[in-house]
Amino acid sequence: MVKLFAHPSGALYIPEEETALFADLHLGYAWAQRRRGQLGPVADGGAVEKFLATLAELSPKRVVLLGDVYHAPRPSEAERDQVERALDAVRGELVIVRGNHDRALLRDFGKAPVPEWRAGGIVAVHGDRLPETEDFLVMGHLHPVVKVRDAAGASRRVPVFWVKDRQAVLPAFTPFSSGCPVRGGSIVAATGTRVVPLTAPRFDDLLPGLPSLVRIA
Fold it and tell me: CATH number, domain at 199?
C-alpha cells in the first residue's frame, strides 16, 4: 500500500502518487446559510486561501477532492466565486469524488464527480456511502475532532486525522465544522501550523523538502 502523510491544513498527501487529497471544503458555507435565513457573518474563514497555500507547498500533480466541495446547490455569485477560485488553482489532474452536499456539481460548475478514486491499494470515497472493499479506505464526511485542554484549563475542539481498522478519516477542511468527536485508533491533530500525534506515532518517515508532513499510515 502507498504511504499516507498528514499535512497541517488537514490535507492528505501520497508521495508515490504525487497526489493531495482534501475532504469537506464546504466552500460558500456562510453565504449558503444566509440564503437559508441565518444571519451570521458572511465570511469564508480563510478556506480558499488555506487551500491555495497548501497547493503551493505540496505542488501535487493530482488533486482529489473527497466530496462536499461546496455547501449548497444553486450557488450565489459569491459562493460561485469561491468554488471557481479554488478549482481554477489546481494545476494538473483534478478528481472530484461525489459528496452528499454537491450532487449538482455537474449542473452548477460543469464538473462531473466520480464515486471513488483508487491507487496503490487504497480506495478514497466521500464517506456517506461505504464500498465493500478489502483495500485501505480513505474518506471524509465525518469531520473528526477531539477536545483538548490547555494549561489554563480552557478546552476547544481540534480537527484530527483518525486512523482505525484499515480506514483513515480526514478532518474537514472547512473552518465552520463543529466536528464529530472520535476515540480509539491513531489520532493526529491538524492544527493549521503543525501535525501533532495525540496518540503514539507509529512511523518516523520523513520527506525531503516537506518537513511539515507526518506519516499516518
Answer: 3.60.21
Closest CA to 66 of 104, 28, 43, 96: 96
**Exposed e or buried b for every residue in 162-193, given b needs 16+ CB within 10 A?**
bbeeeebbbbbbbbbbebeebeeebbbbbeee
Q: State how far the Cα of 50 lies from the Cα of 40, in Å rounded to an integer.
A: 22
pTM: 0.93
User: How far apart are alpha carbons 33 and 69 in whole angstroms?
Assistant: 15
**CA-to-CA distance for 21 and 168, rounded, in angstroms?**
12
Q: Give the structural domain span for 185.
A: 5-215
C-alpha–C-alpha distance, residues 203 and 155, integer Å: 28
Q: Shortest CA distance to 66 belongs to which of 168, 193, 212?
A: 168
pLDDT score recorded for residue 119: 97
Give how far the C-alpha of residue 115 lies from the chain's centroid of Cα atoms, to the nearest Å. 16
pLDDT at 31: 57
Distance between CA atoms of 85 and 113, rounded to whole angstroms?
A: 18
**Integer CA distances (angstroms), 100 to 63, 64, 160, in order:** 19, 16, 21
Q: Which residue has the higher pLDDT, 30 or 22?
A: 22
What grid cell was written down for 161?
486525522
Mean pLDDT computed over every residue of the chain? 91
Give the DSSP letter of residue 36. Answer: T
pLDDT at res. 32 = 64
**pLDDT level of residue 155 (50, 70, 90 thresholds):** confident
Number of domains in the chain: 1
